[in-house]
Design brief:
It is a single chain. This protein has a single domain, classed as Ribosomal protein S3 C-terminal domain. Helices cover 28% and strands 25% of the residues. The protein contains 2 helices and 3 strands; from the N terminus they run H-H-E-E-E. Helix 1 crosses helix 2. It starts with 18 loop residues before the first helix and ends with a strand.
């Protein structure tokens, strides 16, 4: 970076957190890793951790450099019940954003949210 770009307080448009791109990253990984998988209570903690890391790495590699990323992964057993979740953050509405996606199969559900907070 050149000296004039060092102290930017807003990201350039091409480097902004783009929810549609991040959602596609989430969707791709969830389909790849969870399709055909059966719910196993013993495997859920490690699966959540590994999915979170994988999603974070993929999002970072998509060109979102100056963002602090927080990835939340929730996996539960699919029994036909309804689940309601809410997410809440305080941030800079001009620079920060989030994306989320849900994966369902006959055995499990998985909800992922990725929060991107611009690092000044």
């Amino acid at each position: 970076m050149e000296g004039s770009d060092t102290y930017l307080i807003r990201p350039h448009h091409q480097y902004k957190f783009k929810p549609a791109i991040v959602k596609e990253c989430i969707r791709e990984i969830l389909r790849e890793r969870l399709s055909g998988m059966q719910y196993d209570q013993e495997e859920v903690p490690e699966l959540c951790r590994s999915l979170g890391e994988c999603i974070k790495d993929k999002v970072k590699s998509s060109g979102i450099d100056k963002y602090k990323l927080v990835v939340q992964v929730v996996i539960g057993e699919q029994r036909g019940q309804g689940v309601k979740m809410s997410l809440r953050c305080l941030w800079d509405a001009d620079a920060d954003n989030y994306a989320e996606d849900i994966f369902l199969n006959d055995s499990l559900f998985c909800m992922v949210a990725v929060f991107g907070s611009y690092h000044y």
